[in-house]
Amino acid sequence: MLAHKSPFPWGSRPGASWARRLPRFSSRCLNSSPVHPRFKILYLGRDEFSCLVLKELHGAPDVWESITIATNPNERIGRRGTQLTVSPLKLLGESLRLPVHLIPHTKPEFRQWRPPSPFSPSQPPPSDHLVITASFGRILSPVHLSMFAPTRRLNVHPSLLPIYRGPAPIQHTILNGDKETGVCVIQMLKFKEGIDAGPVWGSSRMPVNDGASFTGLRDTLARAGGQSLVSVLRDMQTGKAISTPQSPLGLLPHAPVISVVDSIVDFSTMSAASIVRRHRAISHHKPLVTSLSTEKTLQLHSPSIFTEPVINLTQTPGTASYHKPTQAMIISCSDNSVLSVPLLKQEGKSLMKAKDWWNGAKGLGLVHNGEVRFTAEFAHRILSGQC
User: Fold this and answer.
1) What is the secondary structure of 74-119 as a DSSP string?
2) CB-based burial of residue 224 (10 Å sphere; 0-12 exposed, 13-18 middle, 19+ buried)?
3) Is 333 exposed, middle or buried (0-12, 13-18, 19+ CB in 10 A)?
4) Whole-angstrom Cα distance, residue 43 to residue 63?
5) What is the DSSP string of 170-238?
6) What residues have CB less than 8 Å from 147, skipping those under 6 apart?
7) Residue 90 falls within a domain, yes or no?
8) Does the residue 255 lie in any domain?
9) How many structural domains does the chain have?
10) Beta-bridge partner residues of 299
């Protein structure tokens, strides 16, 4: 008689002995990726740059357990305080349902400010507590920094450090006509050790496109900075993060705060190209300004380099005339270049087209032989008191 061949390889029927021969699995086999501790983050910022960095950070929940925001309080601006400004970071934080705390109005008060829970003085500081600043505009005191381990104090700075240490790196990048820029994630040091001078944990380089404006370059750098920040935090989780000391500062350019003096156009020393760069760099905050012989200031809006042949315009810098074909004021600048300005705003008046301003200037007797003179002299005198 032929023996019956069982379809089961380990016996005549499935049972306990067959089940014992099956490979054993565990929960670790189903999820072999290691779980890394996530950070409790205190995030300090204020403007659109810090908002875009935060969006990149918030979109990487594998690196954070919690994000607590601290930002500037509401402020009233304008001559009579009629306009209320709200921190863009506050609005974004609320929309993301993150806890938002407001710092004091003044810098002396901020030095006494204490971060909210769970951040408090402790020795040693918890390794999972992290402070991040991005375009914050305030310097953290030694007490603030002592709440975090040295490697857990990070700042996102929009330049290729040590180039452009200071509060206005994006503006100076455009002002100087740089062809390359970048963003760094650096370790914050105490004030006496240097501002923007800490070791670099991560960086990203990028070209500066022709015609780049402050807002466009700011947004590009902020997104890249947020991505670099997330990459650094992931490396910190796994112990792979490495910092590099900054090279000596030497004669590298600095990036001081932009003042009203930077908005004054001096046609005797500035070419049309440099004036256009200045407009792209700072006009979002401070419009370019010149002045008239009447000692009135005059804002120049949407300037461009005039490339057409110039007829009957004196080459003396600051000399201007109305150009009917382009409906713009054309102004002689240094290096025999010419600037075109389609919109102007005279002190005490509203923004107007060049043609309308020109007709008004003729009525006031400012036009002689078809030309008018612009000078930086009175603008310096008028605006220097506002610095």
Assistant:
1) PEEESTTS-EEE--HHHHHHHHTT--EEEPPSSHHHHHT--PPTT-
2) buried
3) buried
4) 14
5) HHHHHHTT-SEEEEEEEE---GGG-TT-SPEEEEEEEE--TT--HHHHHHHHHHHHHHHHHHHHHHHHH
6) 115, 119, 120, 121, 122, 125, 129, 131
7) yes
8) no
9) 2
10) 289, 345
pLDDT at 310: 83
pLDDT per residue as tens digits for the range 219-277:
999 999 999 999 999 999 999 999 999 988 888 899 999 999 999 999 999 999 999 99
Are the C-beta atoms of 107 and 15 separated by less than 8 Å? no
Is residue 380 one of the residues assigned to a domain? yes
pLDDT of residue 17: 43
Whether the CB-CB separation of 291 and 297 falls below 8 Å is answered with: yes
Q: Which of 58, 119, 49, 133 has the alpha carbon at shortest distance from 87? A: 49
Residue written as token pair 């954070």:
64
Residues 53 and 158 in one domain: yes
Residue segments in the chain with a per-residue pLDDT below the cut of 70: 1-34, 78-81, 382, 384-387
Strands 372-373 and 338-341: unpaired
The pLDDT of residue 312 is: 81
Domain that holds residue 213: 39-238
Residue 352: how many other CB atoms lie within 10 Å = 16
Q: How far apart are the first and last CA of the chain?
A: 110
> And the tokens for 160?
């290729």
pTM comes to: 0.87
The string over 82-120, giving b where at least 16 C-beta atoms fall within 10 Å of a residue's C-beta and e elsewhere, is eeeeebbbbebbeeeebebbebeeeeeebeebebeeebe
Pairing state between β 39-45 and 129-134: parallel
